[in-house]
């Protein structure tokens, strides 16, 4: 496996069929990628994002795991993809210079490729939904116990004052 550094995905045409071929040929999910959309208008970006979301679901990929697919755009958009305003805002640790890895690093990269394959085989959308559901219930439980703790300490202080 190669060292995971950013790969730019160049959009020549924005038709759904061409995007499908582009996603199939690219290494989305295997390495961190980004698509530069700075020269496009808002309606084109919205349509492209919609098509891209459907294609990513179709290929059973996730926009965040194991490696993210970033959209570079100055126009604020709502999507499942992480967005940044410029290429310079992308995470710097994926821009490292490529050098020949030593034997230990090669072993780690091979383990990493196995982990990436395992992550790609998981049902990531289902797992993330379960996390969101448990997160909400955990937050409600925390709020309840926090209030209960406050009331118990208040009660203890009032009882101490009444005994004196």
Describe this structure in words.
The structure is a single chain. The mean pLDDT is 87. The chain has helices at residues 16-25, 42-58, 103-121, 124-163; strands at 7-9, 33-36, 69-72, 83-84. Helices cover 52% and strands 8% of the residues. It contains 4 helices and 4 strands. The N and C termini lie far apart (73 Å). β2, α2 and β3 (69-72) form a beta-alpha-beta unit. The radius of gyration is 23 Å and the shape is elongated. By secondary structure, the protein is an alpha/beta fold.
Mean pLDDT: 87
Radius of gyration: 23 Å
Biggest β-sheet strands, sense, barrel: 4 strands, parallel
Q: How much β-strand is present in the residues?
A: 5-15%
Report the strand count. 4
Estimated helix fraction:
40-55%
Structural class: alpha/beta
Provide the low-confidence segments as ranges: none
Secondary-structure element series: EHEHEEHH
| Shape estimate | elongated
């Amino acid at each position: 496996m190669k060292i995971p550094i950013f790969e730019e995905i160049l959009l020549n045409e924005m038709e759904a069929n061409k995007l499908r071929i582009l996603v199939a040929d690219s290494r989305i999910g295997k390495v961190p990628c980004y698509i530069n959309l700075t020269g496009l208008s808002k309606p084109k970006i919205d349509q492209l994002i919609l098509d891209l979301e459907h294609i990513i679901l179709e290929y059973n990929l996730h926009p965040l795991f194991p490696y993210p697919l970033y959209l570079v755009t100055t126009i604020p958009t709502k999507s499942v993809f992480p967005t940044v305003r410029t290429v310079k805002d992308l995470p710097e640790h994926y821009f490292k210079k490529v050098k020949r890895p030593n034997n230990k690093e090669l072993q780690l990269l091979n383990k990493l490729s196995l982990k990436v394959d395992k992550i790609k085989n998981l049902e990531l959308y289902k797992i993330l939904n379960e996390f969101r559901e448990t997160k909400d219930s955990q937050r409600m439980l925390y709020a309840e116990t926090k209030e209960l703790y406050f009331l118990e300490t208040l009660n203890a202080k009032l009882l101490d004052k009444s005994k004196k």
